[in-house]
Amino acid sequence: MNNSMKNQSTAAEELENSYRLPEIVRQRKQTLKKLSLKSGEHVLDIGCGVGFLSYEMAVKTGDSGKVIGIDKNPEMIRHSINRCKDLHNTEFMEIEAGSLPFPENNFDAVCCTQVLLYVKDVLQVLAEIRRVLKPAGRIVIVETDWRGVVLNSAFDSLTRKIFSAWDAAVPSPNLPVYLGPLLKKYGFSSIQVEPVPILNTEYSSNQFSHGMMKWITKNALKKGVITDTECRKWLDDLEEKGKTGSYFFCVNRFLFTAVLA
What we know:
By secondary structure, the protein is α/β, with parallel strands linked by helices. The protein has nine helices and eight strands. It has a single domain, classed as Rossmann fold (3-Layer(aba) Sandwich).
């Protein structure tokens, strides 16, 4: 297995674990509620990851419905296929979000979770979503603005460097603040936004931020923004705060809903 395949497999395994965490389970329930799926509807899951949401949407739409999940990581697709192997109304494809191989007016709803901030051409993806949605079709988008993180750390300057490196790792780190106007520009109406807060006051493996802090420090190390010593010092401080009951982390995700006019 080459390095690229190893990285894809690791990413899929980490996502598999992350999507079982209580904060992400709540986010998924909130997303499903906003989609308001009905039996027989056809749904597109852009960036389906390891298939947790696709599975639940397929249960909602029933045998007369259809859920198609797409992801550019073949390991994610493998996990999704395995998760939904007992359902007969799912299909998964290794596809880029900016070029959808589906006809116009094909889907009743589209969901897109934690994908657009990684996309170089957000406008192209929104144009494709608009094309494949039926008139009055619904869209649900979930994105994070990492610039709004609140973290109790003894090393503020180091924290800023680590999160700045995370900002630089994605093309659209500040996407939620201007996503609403973009949706309006592309013909969507009834646009609503609600927060999906992730608050952790414990630093443990069953909390979202535990794995995330390790992930962003790994990124900062790779970018050469921090040293191994700085990385260890920063993470050790969080571990200590977890032991003394003074750990605090909060970030807001934002759930956008809209209807194609």
